[in-house]
Design brief:
Number of strands: 21
Number of helices: 5
Radius of gyration: 28 Å
Largest sheet: 12 strands, mixed
Length: 419
């Protein structure tokens, strides 16, 4: 028997209050949060507050009239029943989001010089850096400090191939194998704060919409999952004691193998002279030997250098113009370590009808990460920074450190009484 299903829907994505809460709780006039890098001698704490001015306080911005956010979802799949109670399913699922939240922790930066699609700046390592006053005048609004903002200009696009093979619970076995191959793209995955996810860049550039486009922070491109339940064979009930010990056993398990989530290579400091409270820069991507595809290396317990740093370079400045450029390595251009995990359990159900028809004494022995596979987490914020603001490679750049993405091998036992 074959069945075919397809669907399409379009849905409003309401702009609820939580989208704007993060803007207001840290900003004037609700909160006067500012900074003064050079307070006078003896001015703290009594003279600390008066030293703050409008240019040092944090502000919020949201457009008075924003576009209507909506999401389109569509899918189609085919199911085919096979012999021996197997069912195979192959389908496509996708979605497209329009006018989604684009959240930035600070948009008040020095604006770039745009030339043939390149974003150029008077970086601190250049030869013709302007004065601090001239840079401040080039900011989006030089009269105030940090501006946290949300714009309803974002978009998302998701496509996936979804397959599964399952077997109904017959002949003591239930089985399902599923595989998803997908890709989610957007120009910012955050909504309430700029860094909603651990791998988010908290202030993606307002002035470079094309450069914000990349794989979503939560994207997992490939995911394979196998789960099963097997009723183990027992013995005849007329054998003394043996049925009590040997009957009612089940073996269950879940195996997962997935490709890692992405993260963004960055440069620490303020190499672009953005004069922002949330600075950043991308390094340049080098397309040399061994740098095609995902620029990573194999790691071991003795060497956790995951990112192939030789595939990246510090953006050079033009000695003629004194300008430097936003690096060419894009957002979420590195895939993190993959995940492999196998959890299994042995379950013993002992029914005692003399007490009650529903009375069941259940023993469970559960093992998590049975093979004790080390699943490294993606590098922390410091590990995504490959160079400092002067161009020197950082020893911590691209290095995997704890905690891991899953636990070590763990075992637990339980005894349950159900009635």
């Amino acid at each position: 028997m074959t069945s075919v299903h397809a669907a399409y829907g379009i849905y409003d994505a309401q702009q609820l209050n939580y989208l704007y809460e993060g803007l207001s709780i840290f900003t004037a006039p609700y909160l006067e949060l500012g900074n003064n890098a050079a307070p006078g001698v003896g001015s703290f704490p009594k003279g600390g507050y008066p030293s703050l001015s409008a240019s040092g306080l944090r502000y919020a911005y949201a457009p008075n009239n924003s576009s209507r956010s909506y999401v389109q979802q569509y899918s189609a799949n085919v199911q085919q029943q096979l012999p021996y109670d197997f069912v195979v399913q192959v389908g496509y699922a996708g979605s497209r989001g329009t006018h989604l939240p684009y959240r930035v922790d600070d948009v008040n930066t020095v604006q770039p010089i745009v030339n043939n699609g390149s974003y150029l700046f008077y970086g601190p390592n250049g030869t013709a850096s302007p004065t601090a006053a001239a840079l401040k005048a080039a900011m989006l609004n030089p009269n105030i400090g940090q501006i946290s903002a949300v714009f309803m200009t974002g978009y998302s696009h998701y496509n996936s191939l979804q397959t599964s093979l399952s077997k109904n619970f017959s002949h003591r076995t239930q089985f399902q194998l599923s595989y998803t191959w997908s890709k989610s793209m957007d120009d910012g995955s955050s909504s309430t704060f700029g860094d909603t996810f651990a791998n988010s860049v908290s202030s993606l550039p307002l002035w470079a919409p094309i450069r914000r486009r990349g794989i979503s922070d939560f994207n997992v491109p490939q995911n394979l999952v196998l789960n099963y339940i097997v009723d183990l064979p027992g013995v005849r009930k007329d054998i003394p004691i043996a049925p009590f010990l040997l009957n009612g056993w089940q073996w269950t398990g879940i195996f997962q193998r997935s490709v890692g989530e992405p993260f963004t290579p960055l440069i620490s400091g303020d190499p672009l002279n953005l004069h922002s409270n949330d600075v950043f820069d991308f390094p340049d991507r080098i397309n040399g030997t061994g740098c095609s595809g995902n620029p990573v290396k194999s790691v071991s317990r003795f060497n956790r250098q995951y990112v192939n740093v030789s595939c990246f370079a510090f953006p050079a400045f033009d000695p003629v113009t004194g300008l430097t450029h936003l690096g060419t390595a894009g957002r979420n251009s590195i895939l993190g370590p993959s995940l492999t995990d196998f959890d299994t359990s042995l379950i013993k159900n002992t029914r005692i009808p003399k007490i009650s028809e529903a009375f069941n004494l259940q023993f469970r022995a559960e093992l998590f990460n049975l093979f004790n596979h080390v699943n490294y987490a993606t590098p922390p914020k410091a590990g995504t920074q490959l160079f400092n603001g002067s161009g020197a490679a950082l020893a911590s750049g691209g290095v995997l450190v704890g905690p891991t993405a899953s636990s070590s091998r763990q075992t637990q036992f339980a005894l349950k009484v159900m009635f």
